[in-house]
Design goal:
heterodimer, A: 460 residues, alpha/beta, Rossmann fold, 13 helices, B: 654 residues, Spore Coat Polysaccharide Biosynthesis Protein SpsA, Chain A, 10-stranded mixed beta sheet, 7-stranded parallel beta sheet, 40% helix, Glycosyltransferase, GT2 family (chain B), Nucleotide-diphossugar_trans (chain B), transferase (chain B), Glyco_trans_2-like (chain B), transferase activity (chain B)
Chain lengths: 460, 654
């Protein structure tokens, strides 16, 4: 996690700079826990290699997790020898460092301070350790007192793994059965588990309620752990994201080293450091209080898992660390200038790029405005057209209503006319009927007998 | 196969042990890089897991107790990987020779690429997938699916996602995004999700078609089951990415709106530019193509993820020259019979459309830009074409010829005025031409971007130089400007010069010499035709002589000549735009007689020759350097609203 945080923070402070990672074995010894992070092998400490590193970069930052002066085989060993211990005890040497600062930063120092380390630190504009004990060791060895003490960089974890990624990782570990579905307490161990620890953890579990115990390990073999059967051991080869996810999802954490403590602190987790050796507390005290650090397992229950000033202490540690990283960035700029790098030219390049970006943005904005105006003009035309159509529609509707009224009136007239027509027809039919009746009626005129009589009289 | 492995192949099996074995054999046969293998058996019901665990000696076999599916299996596999890269590989994928190297090269050369996939082919040789697009409805569509000819797809590009049937991923990136999401059932959509996660974390997913594999779809699952899983996981996918999907058109029914497919294909590109010219650039054949190529390169280099499409009006030698462009990630289009229809299939796609030369503006630029009303229009003149018939007019001997040239000049002038007025941004090759453009199209911003050339560190001096060189392409056509020039050199300049310098050799270097040029070949004149690289000839000649009467713009041959440290003698037409300064009085002649005198002096006077050479090299370094050209092209891009390339960085080590 050291390199991820450092690279991210330095890249933010040195835009446009290329940052390369070097490690004692680098890509020659890929391991599961490196998470695919690629580092070049430091290789053998030779004049050619030293010159190669010094000439390929403007600044080196030496920030191993192991103490300076430590035997590398202890950390990388196994069955192979490890070159390059001198890189961590002598720097690159006086000649190459004349125009190439090699900053020991965020380091710890072993009890036996290597002789070359004192001279190396003396040549550097900035030396920073991550605990006071290391500073005291350097001072006692003869390094001047201008040594910064800076907290573990994990306190600036920030967005190294997003919450959604942590949730996904926990989901996957639960899917595989490596994490319990219920709440759990993380116990971090760096040595075999003792009965005292088991008893202390059980007491913590009792206080927390029904939680399971998940064991996270660093540097201790599975068969040496001596875990109680109910405790669940999570894979020993976890990548950073998985370790973060486990710590983030835990109900609380019992840490066994500064790194787990720093991560837990940065995640806002409840945690306590169990430090029986008395070595891990020193870097932890740079971002936490004494009340979160215990020496014996039986003290765990009474320790402050979540002291009220935890957030303030974390914020303060982050400020110190940020300020330190700012200084490294400044030294990098100075180193660039000292090696003939034209800072003004670089500033001019950046200003030029800034200008170009602004111009491109302006052009896009101009174009967007033109397009927007064209679109709005189209809209305006469409609206006008729409209003005209609406007006026409209203007129048509009015016309229609008028026509409908006229039609109704016409229909009424027509109905009246039809009624009259019907009446006339009826009258006519009646008359015709009467006429026909009359025609078909045999009339006997009352005078006819008289006429007949008369006729007979006249026709004798 | 020795050395530290940098890649781990992760296979997830659910039954089909024979497929797994065949896949591992194929892997061993076609993979030259050292590698490791992790096989995760997802609780196969047929004993596959047990068999693999007992019999596979070259792989780490992990067995899950329940069938958690592809994503969980891959996650478990990667948990056991220790290498820089992991490759998810379906057992039904058949690898081909040399398949892996292009993928590794892609990752090594592009630090922002987090995942890369090969071109996936069907067993019948047709395309199965050249990456895929994700629609707003959450459904996906394999690009090129079923295409019989993969050639048009053979350019590497960023994609929405690529199937994890064969996908190389940086392990760092994989963990950074949390791996495959555990929310999905058994199979399908988890790779789509992974690609979106990668993009959200700043990584890109690419397809590199130089690598090809054959994939038998659904090799280990029945289609009915696959359909059911797809339906289930589609629901998960749409639930997880509502905001992302809301920005996209749907793919179901997209055949009725084919232009939306192109939107989906190129939606991640930081910019999309369409460049239209005569033919696929043939940089070794002159005719303005070296500069066209340089302009295309500038657009390409500004951002590797940008979509750069080159539309060639003519298919001339396209099959020979297109592969090199495609290898650089340039989409090459030629042989299109109906450009408007082609444009409509990409309606509204491009941010910028660049048209070279006036005839292309008329025939293609106007109709194509009609289908791209949103695009910034750039007219890159390459040269002012109307000036050439005007020059011919001056020397024409018959009334008929003069009338023809006058009409042509007027037509070309009108076309060029229309093109520069049409353009939102104009590009010229010289300040002289830019001045004319500013007069005829005052509303159009004009840039000057000529031609980039590197001056080598060891330009030879006078030693080992001899004879004259003529350099220029002839297009195997009579009455070209270069043919006129070389004939004038041979007929009017060389005889007098040879009187003064007996045995003076002439080498004519240039592609496709016409019959009249080939006829010049003789004891002292070599007609070399096209050469793969003209620099050896330009670096061994004493003088480059081109009595050029016709032409416009900057003649690239003289820039090449300057970079090779070869002084030249030419006409005012030839010397235009070259910023010759004081050297012009030694290099530019009006008449053949004057040209003889200038040549004679440069052949005799070694001191003058050396001074002229140094001056020309200085001009080349300041006016025609790649940096100068890049700056000029950046200004063009910025004017188009496209972000310029970022400045190169400095270095620190941790």
């Amino acid at each position: 996690m050291f390199p991820q945080v450092l690279v991210r923070e330095l890249a933010r402070r040195l835009p446009g700079w290329r940052l390369s990672l070097l490690a004692p074995l680098g890509w020659e010894r890929p391991v599961v826990t490196d998470g695919g992070l690629v580092a070049a092998p430091l290789g053998e400490y030779s004049p050619a290699r030293v010159d190669g590193i010094a000439s390929s970069a403007h600044l080196s930052v030496v920030a191993p997790t192991f103490p300076l002066g430590a035997e590398l085989a202890h950390y990388y060993g196994g069955d192979r020898s490890v070159d390059g211990r001198e890189f961590f005890s002598r720097g690159l040497g006086e000649g190459p460092e004349q125009d190439h600062p090699v900053l020991p930063t965020l380091v710890r120092v072993s009890e036996d301070v290597p002789a070359g380390l004192v001279a190396w630190c003396a040549r550097q504009p900035l030396t920073a350790v991550r605990d006071r004990r290391s500073r005291d060791r350097l001072v006692a060895a003869g390094v001047g007192e201008e040594i910064a003490v800076v907290p573990n960089p994990a306190v600036l974890l920030g967005d190294l793994a997003s919450p959604s990624v942590l949730v996904a990782r926990v989901g996957h570990l639960r899917q595989l059965g490596e994490l319990p579905d219920s709440e759990f307490l993380v116990v971090h161990v760096v040595s075999p588990v003792t009965p005292d620890l088991v008893a202390a953890v059980e007491r913590v579990r009792d206080r927390l309620g029904a939680v399971e115990i998940v064991v996270l390990t660093t540097g201790v073999a599975h068969d040496e752990l001596a875990l109680p059967p109910a405790w669940r051991l999570i894979g020993t080869d976890l990548v950073v994201e998985d370790r973060l996810a486990v710590l983030d999802a835990a109900r609380a954490v019992i840490a066994a080293d500064e790194h787990v403590a720093a991560v837990s602190s940065a995640l806002g987790q409840d945690w306590v450091l169990l430090d029986p050796t008395g070595e891990q507390r020193w870097p932890v005290l740079e971002f936490a209080g004494e009340d979160q650090v215990v020496t014996h397992p039986e003290e765990i229950l009474s320790a402050a898992f979540a002291p009220p000033d935890a957030a303030d202490r974390l914020a303060s540690a982050q400020r110190v660390l940020k300020s330190h990283l700012d200084r490294i960035a400044q030294i990098a700029q100075d180193a660039l200038a000292a090696r003939g790098g034209d800072l003004e030219r670089r500033m001019a390049d950046l200003a030029g790029e800034n200008h170009a970006l602004r111009t491109a943005h302006r052009r896009l904005r101009e174009r967007m405005l033109v397009e927007r105006q064209a679109l709005v003009d189209e809209l305006a035309t469409t609206w006008q057209e729409g209003e005209r159509v609406a007006r026409e529609a209203d007129e048509l509707r009015e016309q229609l209503a008028r026509l409908r009224a006229e039609l109704a009136h016409e229909r009424e007239l027509h109905a009246a006319l039809a009624a009259r027509h019907r009446d006339a027809l009826e009258q006519r039919a009646a008359v015709e009927s009467e006429l026909a009746t009359l025609r078909q009626t045999k009339l006997l005129r009352w005078s006819e007998p008289l006429r007949e009589v008369y006729g007979k009289i006249r026709r004798p | 196969m020795t050395g530290t492995p940098r890649i781990t192949f992760v296979l997830v099996s659910y039954g089909g042990r024979d497929l797994v074995v065949r896949c591992l054999e194929s892997l061993a046969e076609h993979t030259t890089e050292p590698y490791e293998v992790v096989v995760v058996d997802s609780a196969s019901p047929d004993g596959t897991g047990e068999w693999l665990a007992e019999n596979l000696t070259t792989a780490e076999v992990l067995r899950m107790s329940t069938n958690l599916g592809f994503g969980a299996g891959c996650n478990l596999g990667v948990q056991h990987a220790r290498t820089e890269l992991v490759c998810f590989l379906n057992a039904d994928v058949e690898l081909t020779a040399g398949w892996l190297e292009p993928l590794l090269r892609m990752l090594d050369d592009n630090p922002r690429v987090g995942a890369v996939a090969p071109l996936m082919m069907n067993a019948d040789g047709s395309v199965q997938e050249a990456g895929s697009v994700i629609g707003g409805d959450g459904w996906c569509r394999a690009w090129g699916d079923g295409d019989a000819d993969a050639t048009p797809l053979t350019f590497p590009r960023e994609v929405d996602y690529a199937s994890a049937a064969c996908l190389v991923v940086r392990r760092r990136a994989f963990w950074q995004v949390g791996g495959f999401s555990p929310e999905y059932e058994i199979a399908y959509f988890e790779d789509v999700d992974l690609a979106l996660q990668l993009r959200e974390h700043g990584w890109q997913t690419w397809v590199q078609p130089s690598a090809r594999v054959v994939h038998a779809r659904h090799g280990t699952s029945s289609s009915a089951r696959a359909t059911e899983l797809m339906r289930l996981n589609h629901g998960v996918f749409t639930r997880r990415w509502p905001e992302e999907l809301a920005k996209r058109p749907p793919v179901v029914g997209v055949q009725e709106r084919p232009h939306q497919l192109s939107w989906l294909r190129d939606r991640n590109a930081p910019y999309r530019v369409l460049l239209v010219d005569d033919r696929v650039p043939q940089p070794d054949r002159g005719r303005g193509d070296p500069r066209t190529m340089a302009v295309v390169d500038a657009w390409r280099d500004a951002d590797p993820a940008a979509r750069v499409t080159f539309f060639a009006a003519s298919p001339e030698r396209a099959e020979d020259y297109a592969p090199a462009l495609r290898a650089r990630g340039i989409e090459v289009v030629y042989g299109v019979e109906d450009p408007v229809r082609w444009g409509r299939e990409r309606l509204g796609l491009y941010d910028v459309i660049v048209v070279f030369r006036p005839h292309n503006f008329v025939a293609l630029g106007l109709p194509l830009s009609g289908t791209q009303p949103q695009a910034v229009r750039v007219y890159d003149s390459e040269a002012l074409f109307h000036r050439r018939p005007a020059q011919f007019f001056e020397t024409a001997e018959s009334t008929e010829e003069r009338r023809r040239y006058a009409l042509e000049e007027r037509r070309l002038r009108e076309e060029e005025v229309a093109a520069f007025t049409w353009a939102d941004v104009a590009v010229c090759v010289s300040e002289d031409e830019a001045r004319w453009v500013r007069q005829v199209a005052p509303g159009t911003p004009v840039h000057v971007a000529c031609y980039p050339i590197d001056v080598p560190g060891d330009v030879p001096g006078l030693e080992r130089r001899e004879g004259l060189v003529f350099f220029g392409g002839f297009d195997n056509t009579p009455r070209t400007p270069n043919e006129f020039a070389v004939l004038e050199l041979a007929n009017d300049v060389l005889p007098v010069l040879r009187d003064r310098h007996p045995g003076l050799r002439l080498r004519v270097v240039g592609a496709d010499p016409s019959p009249a040029v080939r006829a010049l070949s003789g004891p002292l004149t070599d007609v070399l035709g096209r050469v793969p690289d003209p620099r050896p000839w330009l670096s061994t000649g004493r003088l480059h002589v081109v009595p050029m009467r016709y032409g416009a713009g900057v003649k690239i041959k003289f820039v090449d000549s300057m970079a090779a440290g070869l002084p030249f003698v030419t006409t005012p037409v030839g010397g235009e735009g070259l910023h010759l300064g004081w050297t012009a009085r030694h290099l530019v002649a009006e008449s053949a007689a004057e040209m003889v005198e200038l040549c004679d002096r440069l052949l005799r006077d070694d001191v003058l020759w050396t001074e002229v050479q140094q001056a020309l090299l200085d001009i080349c370094r300041t006016r025609f350097s790649p940096e100068h050209f890049r700056d000029n092209m950046s200004a063009v891009m910025v004017d188009c609203g496209v972000l310029p390339p970022a400045p190169t960085g400095v270095h620190t080590a941790c």
